[in-house]
Amino acid sequence: MMSQRITDTVTGSSGTCNGHHHTTQQNGARLLGKEPWWKSSVFYQVYPASFKDSNGDGWGDIPGLISELDYLVHLGVDCVWLSPVFDSPQKDMGYDVSNYQAIYPPYGTVEDVETLTRQCHERGMKLILDLVVNHTSVEHAWFKESRSSKDNPKRDWYIWKPARYDAQGHRLAPTNWRGYFACPTWTWDETTQEYYLHLYAPDQPDLNWEK
What we know:
The protein is 17% helix and 26% strand. By secondary structure, the protein is of the alpha+beta class. The protein has 3 domains: 32 residues; 89 residues, Transcription Regulator spoIIAA (2-Layer Sandwich); 57 residues, Oligo-1,6-glucosidase, Domain 2 (Oligo-1,6-glucosidase, domain 2). A 4-stranded mixed beta sheet has the order 1-5-6-9. Strands 2-3-4 form a 3-stranded antiparallel beta sheet, with no helix packed on it. A 3-stranded antiparallel beta sheet has the order 10-14-13, with no helix packed on it. The two termini are 38 Å apart. 22% of the residues are buried.
């Protein structure tokens, strides 16, 4: 993975940086404040499966990443951005989370993440975990409950809609929206005879943040 310098441009303003303090001129006014840490930090994104395999099983893992932290420090990295490591059936490289309280076993354990966090901090680096909260996996316990019946307490944790029908009585999805993966955004569920929304793959039902 390549490291990159995060920069920021504010329309209609100019600024200079002196240490951690940022002086900004905006509409003729001189503003002095502390610059957000991420504006001048070097980030290094790690996809764990391909970064470093510590046990020879063919998968990169969190212990492998820990073993290379000194190398990242040498590169001048300020913050490690770790792609999803939560438990997942891996239909979308970990962006389909089936359990937010567990780590995908080939990557390691919760204890490994705690060790990684501590060792990043000991080296003066921050750690960002890529947390996917737009959707879950269809294998998540929440969705299994939600799809089990229309009166399940978790039914409205996801977005369900009844079918439409054309003049010939053919069943249609609630809308004709297309998803980010160029597929329809609605999938029919036989159990409760309704569609659920997914802006990505059918294996990634969207959580309902309006409830």
